[in-house]
Amino acid sequence: MSNNPNSMRTTVRQVRHLGSAKSGTHHAWHMRLTSFALVPLTIAFVWIVLSLVGKDYNTVRAALGSPVIAIIMLLFILTSIYHMMLGMQTIIEDYVHSEGAKTFSLALNIFFSFAVGLACVYAVLRLSFV
Amino acid sequence: MAEAKPSTVSPEARRPLSPHLQIYRPMLTMMMSIMHRITGVALYVGTLLLAAWLIAAATDARAFATISDLLTSFIGRIILLGFTWSLFHHLMGGLRHFIQDTGRGMEHPQREYLAQATLVGGLVLTALVWVLAYAAR
Question: The complex's ipTM?
Fold first, then answer.
């Protein structure tokens, strides 16, 4: 990119393809979409955890592995992980300005989200099928 | 644009910046906006707790006993209380955003009420869940 202030190129030509103004709407829409889904899913999740307070291991295992609860847990996990990944992306883009640190943080955010999400999903599936 | 005088300052440095947080007097609507982000980050880290709990349950009785002991210890309860509050505060903030996404609730008294509702709603739901948790124990 040319940062030359004497450049003959128009400002728009200089900034085009350099970032954002590509996927902002998609990001915002998915944020609303996941928020909306998370209202009932969060209530269901809290309800499930609350029903398991003080229960012994076998009861907790059986409950988390039962189809309806497992499916609700999986929906909650996948939706909230995607939601938090989008949210953290916004935070990083707001506060991390240097190009290298920003790219690194954005990558780390994706890795963290996938790792935690996959771990939770694996655990729920294992409780269901093993 | 009056004139296009060549400048040696980079375009980044010449860009106008909007004033940041420390310029403004703290207000409830602003605090709720900040808290929405902070609770979001707390929940982000908190997913590690959920993952640990689920993995322990999927492993064996000993692993589950260990995580249960950790989570029900004094510090564990403080962390879980913070997690519960973050979850509900963020949920209430999300509902506020839905209302304001439609363009409603932006005027002076309404936005204050919404900010208050976010704060009170989060606290009340947290208290409710913890009362139920202790009753169920």
Answer: 0.84
